[in-house]
Amino acid sequence: MKKILFPTDFSEVSKNAFIYALKLADAIDAEIITLHVYELDSPAYLDVSIYLQDIYEYEELSDFENYKDEVPLLRNIAEENNMGHIKISNVLIKGFLVKEVVKLSKKESIDFIVMGTKGVTHLREVFLGTVATKIMNECDATVLAIPEKCSYMPIEKILFNTRYHMDDIEPLKKVVTLANVFHSHIDCLNIKAPHTVYKDDFVVDFKNIFKDQNITFHSVLANDIEGEILNFIEKNKINMVAIHERHRGFFEKIFQVSLSKKLTFHINIPILSVH
């Protein structure tokens, strides 16, 4: 059975993302391991050192009581979405989130990590050194990041941005596997600056390798590359953006552009990061 790791802080953002974890688990016949990591911060002053152990014990007890109250709510979400049959186990660990996610991901041979992100601004920050970025960098599992205001929709259309280089083939195969589970269509999109002559792409090879799959290959000439991708997402009603992890820097630009131009269109769709 496949395994999905779901780091959670029990916020509304996390609970919203949990529905995606449930739907994914149901589609691929997986179990879910929820992970809540809490950190104990030392007081900023020194005079209370004799009370330090009491403070730690109080914080640990408070966190445990909160955990004990919140875990059943996740099970309720599963029941409300007719996903009560999915196996869910829960882990509570004291430590640092990224370190514990990486450790547990390796120990349990995790296939997917599903986690919430806080809105459009924070979605940009996912790719700029925050927790989700570090998890994407350090874990071999495929990471699915769910924006705060992203209401669940069936994954009917997936956008995979590519330069049609050979190192994108294996990541695309992973996306295809997931797309077949959801019966989704994939749009492979390559946008080139019109003043540049490209002779190093392998679009013909891509078409041959994936000729039996539900994929459409696009090559577009445009100066505003990031804006063109945003327009493509909106025009084609894309439900998920899949990226090859090594191209993450390129997507940083897209989110920065969408914010700086204050576009009326917001990227409130899941982001799938594939190694």
Give a short overview.
InterPro entries: Rossmann-like_a/b/a_fold, Universal_stress_UspA, UspA. The protein is α/β, with parallel strands linked by helices and 275 residues long.
Question: Please, could you describe this protein's structure?
Answer:
This is UspA domain-containing protein. Belongs to the universal stress protein A family. It comes from Flavobacterium aquariorum. Residues 1-147 form the UspA domain. InterPro entries: Rossmann-like_a/b/a_fold (IPR014729), Universal_stress_UspA (IPR006015), UspA (IPR006016). The protein is of the alpha/beta class and 275 residues long. The protein folds into two domains: 2-147, HUPs (Rossmann fold); 157-266, 3-Layer(aba) Sandwich (Rossmann fold), CATH 3.40.50. 43% of the residues lie in helices and 23% in strands. It has a ten-stranded mixed sheet, with helices on both faces. Strand 6, helix 6 (169-182) and strand 7 (185-192) form a beta-alpha-beta unit. Helix 3 packs parallel to helix 5 (131-138), helix 4 (119-126) runs antiparallel to helix 9 (248-260) and helix 8 crosses helix 9 (248-260). The longest helix has 29 residues, at 52-80. The protein starts with a strand and ends with a strand.
